[in-house]
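Example 493.
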Amino acid sequence: MRNLALHWQILIGMIAGCCIGLALNMAASERSVTLTSNLPTGVVEAEVDDSSSLTVIRYLVDGKETTVTVDPASRSNDSIRTYKQLAQRDPLASQIYNQHGKSLAKQVGDWCKKIGGLFLRMLQMVSVPLIITSLLSGILSLSGRVGVGKMFKRTLSYYLTTSLLAILTGLLLVNLIRPGLQTTNSVPAAAPTIDESHQTSLVDVMFAQIEAAIPSNPLAAITQPNFLSIIAFTIIFGVFALRVGGTTVTRLQELTNAGLEVMMAITTAIIRLAPFGVFFLITAVLATQGSSVFKSLGWYVLTVTAALVFHACITLPLILKIIAKRQPLEYARAMSPALLTAFSSASSNGTLPVTMTSVEQRAGISNRTGSFVLPLGATINMDGTALYEAVAVLFIAQLHYGYNLPLSQQIIVAITALLASIGAAGIPHAGLVMMVIILQAVGLPLEMQGIILAVDRVLDMARTSVNVWSDSCGCAVVEALDSQTSTAIEPTS
Ligand code: ASP
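Predicted structure in complex with aspartic acid:
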């Protein structure tokens, strides 16, 4: 098993988790008990009927009978949909259920969720230092390059434009296809039961994002953690370090690169645990929710793939054709070694040497442009990742709430997805690590990530190819724009 490539191990973990979870759900998700002893003080008798679709708890206190129902599929504001809500609304019923009423499938599912949660916690653990070192190292790599001001601006504009276009494509498709709502037919189109805290105006939302981009205390932002503040401050710090220049920037660069190397090693080690993480999390999901999850996951994979294909085959080629005046098919053929390496390695950083060689030797881009645009792009330009983050979070929200997030929340998702893609390191599953940022921004439970973990590797391969394809197109665009203006460009070699 150890010699097997990681994605095969993850697949095995996933299949094993699916089988065990499904078997448990089918064989042991129903439980019906009448209890007369070992009950919380004051309760004389209790009855629990538990199944994966509904839990009913009846109990008798002072001759008065109370019936509480937990219905995950309910769309009404007054109903109890989760066991967390049950604990808040009726602690007595919750205590009876937790002590005596859970079906075996739910008991095992809860334990698996706890163990799988350790894996998600480890991903959370590395996210802050990984973002800071990865982003800073990308920015500091620009040090010592003369006459790059204009090129920097163009490159940055290209990165931001294409990433935003990718996010828009993702949002559009996830709103159209609604992968997380495919299992329930009675779901309303709008979001009538949206919770109060989410009902802020668009201006408030935008302003809150701007405020977050100016942290009043960057160290507090790290401990919270507030990712938007962290990314904004890291960019400011990097840019001004470049301005200070000299030995300051060289020393910083050494330190950052060393830090990044260590963080990459830790992340890679954690990702090696992914097969176990996937196993426990998928077992938990299937044991408690049954096979309906598959239908949603299929729609989710389809949505991400369709959006990636649209961005890679329509948006980017159009930009390539109109701005860079290059034949998209020919260019793609020239870049094929890099695209295939990206697909099989799921790492933009790992693919970087191949991307640079392909761009310069096969696509005829100058070394000056390639060596500037690509290393920066491998770190901060991730169209595929940005798109994937947006789709994944909206999918999770659809599953969790049973409806689409409102526009103001979708804007937060778009902005944070952009930042998450900028902050993501170019290594396998980095997008998964960064998703915490967005889930946190829109108040979704982090453990919902467990549902999509199972299909992350295959989507990672696809989105990494799109990341590298966008970096490559960026070279052609920047080169074309630079050659149009004869100023500022001196050959380096
Ligand atoms: N694996 C991607 C990359 O290296 C990042 C991600 O996980 O989205 O480009």
